[in-house]
Amino acid sequence: MRRCRFAFTLIELLVVMAIIGILAGMLFPIFGAMRTRAKITKARHEAGQIDTAWKSYQMKERSLPALTDMNTAGAWAYLVPYIETTNLMRIGAAGVPTDPWGVAYKVLFGDPDRDIKVWSCGPDTNNNCVVAGGSLTNGGDDVCSW
Questions:
Q1: Diameter of the chain by CA atoms?
Q2: Terminal C-alpha separation, the chain
Q3: Which fold has domain 42-144?
Q4: Does the CA dihedral 47-51-54-56 come out positive or negative?
Q5: Tens of pLDDT along 28-59?
Q6: What is the reported pTM?
Q7: Domain ranges, ordered by start, for the chain
């Protein structure tokens, strides 16, 4: 007499679980890299949006605010009417927008033409941009609007 088999054996289940584990181990680093790239893209978009907001303010008011420190809540208050999607910006404890890594965006008004530079410190959260010879150059993994 022959018996019908309606269940999987323990070995079959362990083999399937091992295959799933191997595939998951191969895919997790890929998803992590995609997440980092998405944050970099978001930071680049937000830095460009802040840059555009400062340029819109400059065109309307015919000058930029005479502030010594642009990374304060008072300086960012000028931008509220000019940022398109303020609900997408995260506001940090100091009252300034923060990048996807929780660090405040940096702003520099260049002299003499008052060129505007906006950047994020990037994934390592260290400011690698260098002011050399009056110009700002990107270093490391910083995300810049220029």
A1: 96
A2: 79
A3: Glycoprotein, Type 4 Pilin (3.30.700)
A4: negative
A5: 888 888 888 888 888 888 888 888 888 888 78
A6: 0.67
A7: 42-144
